[in-house]
């Protein structure tokens, strides 16, 4: 009798569905205190009364409690809607409708009332304006100097998209420091700043330096950059005439924004500070919670 052969179906083991890589957990060194205290309340009241915008609020800055508690704030002019859609930034994106020609006066008066010794002014991008908002920038700085002649000023200006006439107007009001953040290394620009160009921002810094200004820029860490890319960015900035660099940890403002690729240890921030100084920068503010205007009052006196 022929042997009866039974062919059983081959059962393949079920494939394990791929799991998303675990997001890095926020470490203890990134904990901040909630904003409290009478000085914070005073700044809060003045900002509300004068209908002012601050990047402290719009950008969800982790140092708002510390800075406002010290009676200082970074004011954001030209509204609070930006024409850019950078994937790291909490400021609203859209078509701006606000163009308040009285804003320079209100900002200057608020700074006078607050007795600010060093003021930081920034703005959203206004690509739809022919002069990129440069006339408002210039008037704001001039009026601050008129009402508070003892106040030093840093202007953190946006990318003017190679409108160099607008740049000249923006930086000619009498401010002591002109800052323009490159934000990240060149390889990540399409991901982080899709409407900006790395080389164009470097040229803006170079032109600002050529105009005789104290120059400053900032980079966020933890977006996926390598150490070699950070060294290259520092070299590029030094070659462009940069004086002061701020380095801080990127923090995801909402779930719609870029994930944090890595939380950078404070020891590496310290290393980058030493590297920046060794490579020719005059001053490097480096730490997990450092932001563009953090300790900005110190930067105005950096020897250059």
Automatic annotation (TrEMBL):
<dbReference type="InterPro" id="IPR007197">
    <property type="entry name" value="rSAM"/>
</dbReference>
<comment type="pathway">
    <text>Protein modification; protein lipoylation via endogenous pathway; protein N(6)-(lipoyl)lysine from octanoyl-[acyl-carrier-protein]: step 2/2.</text>
</comment>
<keyword id="KW-0411">Iron-sulfur</keyword>
<feature type="binding site">
    <location>
        <position position="82"/>
    </location>
    <ligand>
        <name>[4Fe-4S] cluster 2</name>
    </ligand>
</feature>
<keyword id="KW-0808">Transferase</keyword>
<keyword id="KW-0479">Metal-binding</keyword>
<feature type="binding site">
    <location>
        <position position="86"/>
    </location>
    <ligand>
        <name>[4Fe-4S] cluster 2</name>
    </ligand>
</feature>
<dbReference type="InterPro" id="IPR013785">
    <property type="entry name" value="Aldolase_TIM"/>
</dbReference>
<feature type="binding site">
    <location>
        <position position="61"/>
    </location>
    <ligand>
        <name>[4Fe-4S] cluster 1</name>
    </ligand>
</feature>
<feature type="binding site">
    <location>
        <position position="56"/>
    </location>
    <ligand>
        <name>[4Fe-4S] cluster 1</name>
    </ligand>
</feature>
<dbReference type="Pfam" id="PF16881">
    <property type="entry name" value="LIAS_N"/>
</dbReference>
<comment type="similarity">
    <text>Belongs to the radical SAM superfamily. Lipoyl synthase family.</text>
</comment>
<keyword id="KW-0408">Iron</keyword>
<feature type="binding site">
    <location>
        <position position="67"/>
    </location>
    <ligand>
        <name>[4Fe-4S] cluster 1</name>
    </ligand>
</feature>
<dbReference type="Pfam" id="PF04055">
    <property type="entry name" value="Radical_SAM"/>
</dbReference>
<feature type="domain" description="Radical SAM core">
    <location>
        <begin position="68"/>
        <end position="282"/>
    </location>
</feature>
<keyword id="KW-0004">4Fe-4S</keyword>
<keyword id="KW-0963">Cytoplasm</keyword>
<dbReference type="InterPro" id="IPR031691">
    <property type="entry name" value="LIAS_N"/>
</dbReference>
<dbReference type="InterPro" id="IPR003698">
    <property type="entry name" value="Lipoyl_synth"/>
</dbReference>
<dbReference type="InterPro" id="IPR006638">
    <property type="entry name" value="Elp3/MiaA/NifB-like_rSAM"/>
</dbReference>
<protein>
    <recommendedName>
        <fullName>Lipoyl synthase</fullName>
        <ecNumber>2.8.1.8</ecNumber>
    </recommendedName>
</protein>
<keyword id="KW-0949">S-adenosyl-L-methionine</keyword>
<feature type="binding site">
    <location>
        <position position="89"/>
    </location>
    <ligand>
        <name>[4Fe-4S] cluster 2</name>
    </ligand>
</feature>
<dbReference type="InterPro" id="IPR058240">
    <property type="entry name" value="rSAM_sf"/>
</dbReference>
<feature type="binding site">
    <location>
        <position position="293"/>
    </location>
    <ligand>
        <name>[4Fe-4S] cluster 1</name>
    </ligand>
</feature>
């Amino acid at each position: 009798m022929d042997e009866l052969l039974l062919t059983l179906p081959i059962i393949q083991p079920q494939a394990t569905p791929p799991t998303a890589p675990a997001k890095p957990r926020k470490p203890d060194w990134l904990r901040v205190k909630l904003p409290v205290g009478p000085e914070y309340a005073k700044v809060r009241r003045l900002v509300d009364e004068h209908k002012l915008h601050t990047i402290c609020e719009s950008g969800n800055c982790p140092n708002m409690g510390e800075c406002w508690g010290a009676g200082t704030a970074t004011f954001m002019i030209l509204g609070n809607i930006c024409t850019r859609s950078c994937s790291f930034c909490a400021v609203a994106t859209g078509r701006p409708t606000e163009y308040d020609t009285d804003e320079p006066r209100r900002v200057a008066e608020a700074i006078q009332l607050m007795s600010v010794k060093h003021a930081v002014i920034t703005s959203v991008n206004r690509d739809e304006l022919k002069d990129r908002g440069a006339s408002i920038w210039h008037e704001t700085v001039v009026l601050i100097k008129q009402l508070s002649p003892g106040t030093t000023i840093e202007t953190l200006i946006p990318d003017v998209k190679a409108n160099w006439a607008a740049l000249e107007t923006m930086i000619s009001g009498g401010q002591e420091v002109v800052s323009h953040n490159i934000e990240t290394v060149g390889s990540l620009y399409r991901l982080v700043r899709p409407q900006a160009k790395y080389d164009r921002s470097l040229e803006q810094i170079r032109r600002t330096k050529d105009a005789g200004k104290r120059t400053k820029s900032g980079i966020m860490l933890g977006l996926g950059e390598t150490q070699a890319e950070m060294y290259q960015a520092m070299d590029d900035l030094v070659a462009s005439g940069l004086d002061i660099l701020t380095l801080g940890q990127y923090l995801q403002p909402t779930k719609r924004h870029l994930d944090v690729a890595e939380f950078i240890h404070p020891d590496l921030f310290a290393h980058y500070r030493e590297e920046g100084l060794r490579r020719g920068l005059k001053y490097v503010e480096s730490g997990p919670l450092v932001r563009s205007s953090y300790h900005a009052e110190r930067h105005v006196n950096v020897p250059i």
